[in-house]
Amino acid sequence: MPVEGASAAIEIKPIDIPETRMDEVGQGSQGFIQMLGSQVNELNGSLDQADQAARALAAGEDVPVHDVMIAMEHARLKLQMAVEVRNRVVDAYQNLTNMQL
Predict the structure, then answer these.
(1) Cα-flanking dihedrals φ and ψ of residue 45, to 5°?
(2) Fewer beta carbons under 10 A from the terminal one: N or C of the chain?
(3) What is the pLDDT of residues 89-99, one digit of tens each?
(4) pLDDT, tens digit, 9 for 90 and up, residues 26-38
């Protein structure tokens, strides 16, 4: 399909993606999903660790207060990072869906 420009016509050809490339894309998306799942599991573990430390401190166990505060801040930062990543992904998705072709 030719597109006429100011000086000359430009030919735009359709992009052909070989079947092997489609398989690679599928594998890449699986790797991303696995990485995302492992990060969510790590975040959950960090939140559980902070919760257990806070419960142990509240129960009167011999737990240093600074260790509890470090665990809670670590979990808070990881959660804040996950929320920001989610916000960026949602923004990117909305930009793509609002894009006119």
Answers:
(1) -65, -40
(2) C
(3) 999 999 999 98
(4) 566 778 888 888 9
